Known about the structure:
- The protein is of the alpha/beta class.
- It has 4 domains: 68 residues, 5' to 3' exonuclease, C-terminal subdomain (DNA polymerase, domain 1, Orthogonal Bundle); 112 residues, CATH 2.40.50.140; 221 residues, P-loop containing nucleotide triphosphate hydrolases (Rossmann fold); 162 residues, Rossmann fold.
- The protein contains 25 helices and 21 strands.
- The strands form 4 sheets. It has a 7-stranded parallel beta sheet with strand order 11-12-10-13-14-9-15, with helices on both faces.
- Helix 8 packs across helix 25.
- The C terminus is likely disordered.
- The site of adenosine-5'-diphosphate has 18 residues, from helix 11.
Amino acid sequence: MLEPSTPVQYVKGIGPRLAEVLAAKGIATVDDLLHYLPFRYEDRLNPRSVAELRAGEMATVIAEVRNSGLFRTRRMPIFQLTVGQGRSKLKCLWFNATYLQDKFQPGQMVALYGKVEADRDGNLQIMQPQFEILGDINEEGGADEAEKKAAASLEIGRIVPIYESTGQGKLTPRWFRRIIRWALENLKPDLPDPIPAAVRGHLSLVSPREALFKVHWPDAGESFSDLQSSRTPAHIRMIFDELFFIELGLELKRREQKAQTGIAFQLNDGVREAIKKILPFHPTAAQKRVLKEIATDMQMACPMRRLLQGDVGSGKTIVAFQAAIIAIENGYQVALMAPTEILAQQHYFSARQILERAGYRIVLLTGSLEQDRKRDIRRHIAQGHAQLVIGTHALIQDRVEFEKLGLVVVDEQHRFGVMQRLKLMKKEGAAPTQNHVGADAPVRPAERSSAPEPDVLVMTATPIPRTLALTLYGDLDVSVLDELPPGRTPVVTRSLLDERAPEVWEFVRKQIAAGHQVYVVYPVIEENPENTEDREVKAARQMHRQLRDKIFPSLHVGLLHGRLDADEKEHVMREFQQGKLEVLVATTVIEVGVDVPNATVMVIEHADRFGLAQLHQLRGRIGRGAAKSYCVLMHGGKVSEEGERRLDAMVRSNDGFQIAELDLELRGPGEFFGTKQAGIPSFRVANIIRDRQLLEAAKREAAFVVSGPSSEISQQEIDRALREMRSRWALSYGLVEVG
Ligand code: ADP
Ligand code: MG
């Protein structure tokens, strides 16, 4: 009998080599394998008959091969297959598919899946359908007669799971079907259910075993649309299961955190006055509200853990400076961490402009400083002389000792991931450990550290829908800056073909003549002669030369990219900031945080090659002053459909939340919330956008469990759920460190 934890190698049909291929896919155990869910299902119990197909629909068809062959057009070889049912016929076409040449024999039964279309004569056809030759079990070889029969019975006369092929196509949907079926049949029968009965009851969850079985092999009567949308009882059980144990961990961390000793900062009139004094402008209503939320947290005795979301340009920096003053006025030190040196430098400049006048002592700690200088600065920090320390996260979090650290601000958190964020808060890196759950169980005093935990403010421009943020960053409170400073006119965005470049450069000249500055952005630093596909891509370095020498010979054109050393970067950035350069040619290094309000034009070449969020972040560099700003998205015309949609979204909208939603839709949550990007764990079966409601249910149920035993739930059940949670966190999220 197989246990869920059995290595996948013990499943019949999986040898060491295939086990390796699967491992690369994250499938190491039987449990992993059983969580490799079909991405769709085919109804081969009631397949559509050819006669009733309609153009425009996605359909599964089971029919007999009539004939097939390859014919060549001038542009490419096309493989044509004709299948039939009685007198109805259906044509299937594949482009460039010489490999299909000897695949089909007349008389074979095939299952086809694809979009039905009408050809020029009104006959129905399917282009490039997915297909399976039914009964053709020899494909994978090795099976004996009885096995072949059994395998064949998995292919027709039922709802059939379709898995994504993997291992360079070697592991086909059919292969997965056979393997997973065998694993299910040999799975030990009594799987314990770690979810407490009361929770199961609240959501009418089916048992783990039933869920595993039916998610792969649905009953004939199962709703087909529920299957396709992952809403069958089996799906719901598996998705909830995954989310519940994540939320349970988060809930516990939240409790532990609230029980920790922080710093209760004083907010007296003196401090209030100091905060107001530095303001170079009237804060927006949103900035006032958010500062109040932060100040309230800072006054409380438990450590602040707050996420500040605000679209690019919404004015997060000044709010952070104000929070810093609260800490400094209370005699504490503040660390402000930025993801790049450029941004750290920039924060340093603005901090000096805004805070140094008020007499605060600010230091910048970057990797490019000389060793001696670094040592000096470190000493300043350790002795408590430096009050505000600005630097990149790598520098600050690893090696710097503070005399009295009171507040940590992490800017552009989406660039860090949660892991680094936690490292700074040292003790919290570990999975929740304690077991003081229960209505009257006290927090063990031994867990309190002697030094109080600093407050932490995390800032991000990645707009995660609020409920989602609350549920995912379970331990963070969320503030939103949902208002731009006044006097901004929305950036005008146009998408233009490359051939209109001369007009664009003319426009750039005019803007510069009017006293403004311009960014020109490229996707790569250097041309890559080895990559033929990329040979036509214009690169920052080459284009810098051309723009400087040929296109704008009378202007000052600078170049900024990630491979310059820190000094060079700083130099270029400063010259641009001071207006000595009119044009800055750059890569996406300028994506975050760069703030030069006088820049009013951004030209992005090969704009279709950038992601949507990236384009929006880039565009956020302009439109920062009162003057009208323009973003020009250049492209060569051969744009993919998705690229088209991205450009279109940019032209239509300036709203970060709207753009994020579309981005989410285009890329899917996996990419959007790439673990690196946002520090959110990758899920096996859940999709946090699709499963938003289950996520909220999971959070609710987790809180219910953590609140302790009652008539509904016993301490024993709670302990069992917590044990399961800990082992899962250690196993799956140990590296990610949620929340
Ligand atoms: P982000 O939220 O993207 O980090 P910044 O903090 O860099 O935005 O602010 C963007 C620009 O808006 C800066 O030039 C800043 O000085 C300016 N700004 C911020 N708040 C206000 C305000 N209330 N009124 C006018 N300008 C503001
Ligand atoms: Mg910023």
